[in-house]
Design goal:
Layout: H1 4-7, E1 10-11, H2 16-21, E2 26-27, E3 31-35, H3 42-55, E4 60-64, H4 69-78, E5 87-90, H5 109-114, H6 116-128, E6 132-136, H7 139-142, H8 148-164, E7 168-173, H9 177-186, E8 189-195, E9 202-209, E10 219-224, E11 227-231, E12 247-248, H10 253-258, E13 263-264, E14 268-273, H11 279-292, E15 297-301, H12 306-315, H13 320-326, E16 329-333, H14 341-355, E17 359-363, H15 365-371, H16 378-394, E18 398-404, E19 425-434, E20 437-447, E21 457-462, E22 465-471, E23 475-476, E24 484-485
Parallel strand pairs: 3-7, 3-8, 4-5, 4-6, 6-7, 14-18, 14-19, 15-16, 15-17, 17-18
Antiparallel strand pairs: 1-2, 8-9, 9-10, 10-11, 12-13, 19-20, 20-21, 21-22, 23-24
Helix pairs in contact: 8-9, 14-16
Length: 494
């Protein structure tokens, strides 16, 4: 026996990501309200809704009141959206209205009394029998009524009239607290578009989808050359998978020994340390080695240009250019404030799937927080990073996150953004000052699978790259930033 939800017939909005938020698209014969301040993309969403109907061979009607039909067609065409086959009904005032002595809102009172405009809308619907109707904006009908009570009655009767005909209606509106509550209650679904500033970016959420449900939360929204694009936030789900203890290894045996043999596949590693200590250099050892071994590797650069990364890495002997040309290494430089966190996550997952990537490096967390639009506060940042890394781990992909701490010496906390719970492995790199000499050390704080060395190692960065020494002995206080020798014995690692 079918449930009521299963009996619903769905139609695509024309925007795949929005269909996902609506749990499959619009339900035929229902009324949907799109709310948003000017410039958020309400009309654009509506034109894509109509264009999708035209592509499916449906009859569509565009009821408009603020822009002419020619302007609406031209604006849509600029974004590659063809609505020339749509029927248009202009309910706005004629151009000669400005010349009149009276000062009415939209139409002459006599028009209201006679109901000419309402009759015109009804006649158009009766004649066309449209499958989809866009009302942009719905407040044009409000101006025809003497009170909000009458407007509510009009919308209820209009919605029932169209529903009985099986017509799906999309209505746009600029937010207004009192009127919004009435229209929200009347609508079968509500879509809210937001735009605060360039840093926050565009957002979309669906607070209501009657009888069907929706993806909750705020999601990524962009206006691109092809129209609106919606990027639902990742909702990773744990999948049953067999854990295979294969490892990614670097080209440095001492570094692999420090990690108990390397980094296990399908795990998340955070490499944490202050600026200039060699975090990216360390991550590149795994990245380049994996690519050289024929395993697809992918890195995203938030804090360094592609040219600088390539030059520095090749100076250390890693053939970045050749590996990229062969296709085993993908390197992407991320421009500041060009993507929402949802769009970035969608890009990562798509590139991983399309290229069969096995290792992903994100360089780094601080750059992500600064460069990604709408990354928000630290708590939201951790949630989004966790969702992305968990999704990749569920795909059996290994992830390395580079984390910059502000403290130069000592280790007051494992990571800078309290993201340690995300990691299966935490590698720390730090400076120590010992007897007037500034030295670098590396160690492992956490490794969820397998063992690791509990004693840090000194290392240097030379013209040949990373050079890892023997474990540090005869010294204590390394993690609190005040190392002292425990004996007069000469440290063999010096």
């Amino acid at each position: 026996m079918n449930t009521p939800e299963q009996s619903f017939t769905r139609s695509s909005s024309g925007i795949p990501g929005l269909d996902s938020l609506l749990e499959g698209g619009f339900v035929d014969g229902r009324l949907y309200l799109v709310l948003g301040v000017p410039g958020t993309g309400k009309t654009l969403l509506g034109t894509e809704f109509l264009c999708e109907g035209l592509s499916a061979g449906e009859t569509v009607l565009f009821i408009h009141g603020e822009e002419s039909a020619d302007d609406l067609r031209a604006n849509a065409a600029e974004l590659g959206i063809d609505i020339r086959g749509a029927n248009f009904l202009d309910v706005g005032p004629e151009s000669d209205f400005f010349k009149r002595a009276q000062s009415y809102d939209v139409v002459d009172p006599q028009d209201i009394e006679d109901g000419n405009l309402i009759a015109e809308v009804r006649d158009a619907i009766e004649e066309l029998d449209p499958d989809r109707v866009l009302i942009d904006p719905i407040t044009q009908f409000q101006y025809l009524e003497p009170s909000e009570y009458q407007f509510r009655k009009r919308i209820i009767s209009f919605a029932r009239y169209l529903k009985n005909r099986g017509t799906t209606v999309l209505a746009t509106k600029t937010p207004h607290a009192q009127m919004d509550m009435q229209l929200r209650s009347l609508s079968d679904g509500v879509i809210v578009l937001e735009y605060e500033d360039e840093k926050e970016g565009r957002r979309v959420h669906v607070p209501k989808h009657r009888g069907v449900g929706q993806r909750d939360g705020r999601h990524g929204l962009e206006i691109r050359g092809g129209g609106l694009q919606v990027y639902p936030a990742l909702q990773p789900e744990r999948h049953a998978r067999t854990f295979e203890p294969d490892r990614f290894m670097s080209d440095i045996s001492e570094l692999d020994s420090l990690l108990g043999g390397g980094l296990e596949r399908g795990t998340v590693t955070i490499i944490s340390g202050p600026s200039g200590v060699g975090k990216t250099t360390t991550a590149t050892e795994f990245l380049a080695t994996a690519a050289a071994n024929g395993e697809r590797a992918l890195t995203y650069l938030f804090e360094e240009s592609l040219e600088t990364f390539t030059y520095r890495s090749e100076a250390f002997g890693h053939p970045i250019t050749r590996l990229r040309e062969e296709g085993s290494l993908l390197v992407n430089e991320i421009d500041s404030l060009t993507q929402s966190p949802e769009e970035f996550a969608d890009r990562v997952v798509t590139e991983v799937q399309d290229n069969a990537v096995e290792l992903v490096v994100i360089d780094g967390i601080e750059g992500y927080k600064t460069a990604i639009k709408g990354a928000g506060e630290a708590v939201e940042l951790r949630r989004r990073l966790h969702a992305l890394t968990q999704h990749l781990v569920d795909m059996n992909v290994s992830v390395i996150l580079i984390d910059q701490r502000t403290t130069v010496t000592g280790l007051p906390e494992a990571t800078s953004e309290h993201v340690s719970y995300i990691a299966d492995n935490i590698v720390f790199q730090n400076y120590i000052e010992l007897e007037g000499e500034l030295q670098r050390i590396a160690g492992v704080l956490k490794k969820r699978v397998g063992g690791f060395e509990t004693v840090p190692r000194r290392y240097t960065i030379t013209a040949d790259g990373l050079q890892i020494g023997e474990p540090v002995t005869g010294i204590h206080g390394v993690l609190n930033g005040v190392p002292e020798r425990t004996s007069e014995t000469t440290d063999r690692s010096r």
